[in-house]
Each structure stands twice: as structure tokens, then as C-alpha cells.
Write a structure and sequence with these properties.
Blueprint (H helix, E strand, L loop, with lengths): L2 H12 L4 H7 L4 H8 L6 H43 L3 H13 L7 E5 L2 H14 L7 E8 L7 H9 L10 E3 L14 E6 L2 H15 L3 E2 L4 E2 L3
Parallel strand pairs: 2-3
Antiparallel strand pairs: 1-4, 2-4, 5-6
Amino acid sequence: MDFSKKLKAIELRKNGLSYSEIRNSIAVSKSTLSNWLKDIELSKEHKSRLSKLQATGYIGAKTNQTRALLHHKKIKQTAEIEAIKLSQKPFFVAGLMLYWAESDKRSGRLQFSNSDPDMIKLMMKWFRKFCNVPEEKFRIGLFIHTLHIRKDCLDFWSKVTSLPLEQFNKPYIKPTIFSNRKNKLYEGTCVIKVHSKDLFSKMLGWIEGAKIPFLDSSTNKQVYV
């Protein structure tokens, strides 16, 4: 234990500083700080000040949350309009429908998984063409059963995605009991990842907008075009 840090923390706390303010001055974990200061009694004035700080922090957090919600709502609304025009492009519709059917739509990031190399290649082309994803933003995950591990699996998917191995996450190896079902052509499941909340919101907007030419949202009945 660094007693000099503890003594300084106690002094600052007695002066009415919050844990966050103390941690700005002292490099120590919140749990350690809590343990050091749990028996320190604060004056009424200090308690009042900290209560105001907490209220101000809450208001600031809510303001930021509201601003973020409006920001992403605007992105989605703009994307819905874009999708109506882009739905005239067969490749756009094909990729969007694949994403809608096969992707994770709750994580707040783009994530598409499949074991078909041609489908992964198609989606990589689609992300590059319509989403304008910078090459360095792509991350690739690989899920593979223990039975199908090969030394060249990563190299295989690197060629399919046209991405360097530096952009691959550590493969997730899944144990399996089906020892007699080895598929010699199976190279694992490839996961394309793009960490972008703005692009994720845009994708959700595109999906909603692409439905409009084909579905009447008010009656949920198919509209033939």
C-alpha cells in the first residue's frame, strides 16, 4: 500500500472533494479509494456540495444521452430516404437483405457472420461500396471447431476478405463431440465487424427504408411493384 497516496486521499476527502476529483489527483482504483475513505465523515457543507455535483453530473449525462438519441434518430431517418432510392440498385438490395437476415442487429455495431467464402467476399465488397468503410476499420473474427483447425485457416480468410492478419481477432475455438463428421472443406465461420454506432444506425435506417417499396407499413400487407 502507498501510504502517501492514502494520506493525500484522506486529506482531499476531508476537504470535501468527490471520489472523481480525488482520482484526478491520485492514480488509484475506485475500489481502493472507497476502502480508504469509507469512515471519513463529511460536513453538511461538503455533503451539500457533493449532492449538487452529483445532480449536475446526472443532468449532463441525460443531456448527452438525449443528444445522442436525436443524433442517431436523424441518421436513421436520412438513411430511410436514401434506401428508397438505393433500392433500385440490385446489389444494394442483395447485400442489405443478407445483412438483415444474417447479422447481429442489437449490438450497436455492424457484424455479419457466415461460413460461405463467396458470401463473405460479397459482403466485404458491399461494405466497401455502399458503407465506405475505411480498410483499417474492419475487424475479422473466426469461429471454428477443434476438428477443423488448420494452420492456413487465417490465411484463407485473409485472402477472402483482402485484409491483413493484423486485423484479425484471436480465433475462437469451439469444442465438438462429433468426431466422425469432419468436413474437409469447412474453414470455420468468418465474422465481419465494424465498430461504428453511426453506421449501425444508418444500416437500421436502410433496412426500414428498403421495406417501403415492398410493404405497406400501415397495413403490413405486401404491395406489389
